[in-house]
């Protein structure tokens, strides 16, 4: 009988993940243009309830650009990685990172998005960051678009609602891939591409008050991103055949709340709608269920000749995804609802919740890994997973975060189980290795990091970095290739 080994493969890519708009700062330095993320204001929790504060209206943008807004925009400042990158990367190296997932801010390289030539000062910053990673033997994993569309493209074209944006994105991707063709192997075309159907502004720079049918436009914008992604896969492999170019999904594994067939059917539908995006990017086709959905919801996707052939011929090399929770759904409208990352659902009585109401489900990660691998049979990469929580700095400066260690341990244990199931899992980058501005709420107090950053929700603090208990724990995990999780 064959022995089943529950261990991570040699060369497994352990690391952490960030986004430029949540860590960099320097929003107006060295020729950088404004991005959509620079327009997202901080809204105190007591003013926004339990929801996120992501969508921005045309009126708000005009008010901000006219200098009439008194709001604060935390993503403009991040945690000043722009000036602290050497210190931060040294800390990542101390933990033993094999890889670091970062994003390039498109507007730092092409300030208006449709510029014909890049901003050399912006590229120089990424030269320095990439060289610093290479110095420590850390493999860069670059996301080309992570919730930051150049504002110029939103103003001129309404972002990805327009097909015009495809060529501008491909020019940007070509610039980055040619410049780093010998230093960056792993690329992601879009972060959590499915979020464009939930928040078109966040995922694609689309201001929904400018369109008549926001649902239709969100899927039209997604189609433009699919085409752009395939064009970049084709181009990237021409630049360097060794490139590994992936897609990225916000995976929302959905359970039926009961064994009522109506609940089961609803959960199946929710999973299909989530996986539609990877059906296109990995499978290379538009599945039947989405065609029915479009027909029943008055959605017509405008395609050009050759689009479907392009999608089929140039799928991604691997599938990456974020995983924070599972969702449960019920056909019964009277069941209690719970919060979640952009999405809600009914409360799952078998799961605990985080400080922000996100339901914690380590076993669900194993379910997700098996679901994705069964469906696609391509290498998988977990590029976001972590616990947002309140942290306390003790009098001696220590930060004890056993809740974070417990969360990560239980998820890593399930990753080992999935590998034993036969899943081809190539890496894991926790979100985020250093405290950063929350994507969904623009808070600082919602902390994920192994590294504490002295900054509060109002932007006050020294920005000093310090190691939490989880820093030393994760270092041990990497040192033992996931064997010592105690």
Description of the molecule:
- The protein has 486 residues and is an alpha/beta fold.
- It has one domain: TIM Barrel (Alpha-Beta Barrel).
- The protein has 16 helices and 16 strands.
- The strands form five sheets. It has an eight-stranded parallel beta barrel, surrounded by five helices. A two-stranded parallel ribbon has the order 6-8.
- Helix 4 packs parallel to helix 6 (120-135), helix 8 (164-179) packs parallel to helix 10 (214-239) and helix 10 packs across helix 13 (307-313).
- The longest helix is centred in the middle third of the chain and has 26 residues, at 214-239.
- The protein is globular, with a radius of gyration of 21 Å.
- The model has no long low-confidence stretch (mean pLDDT 95).
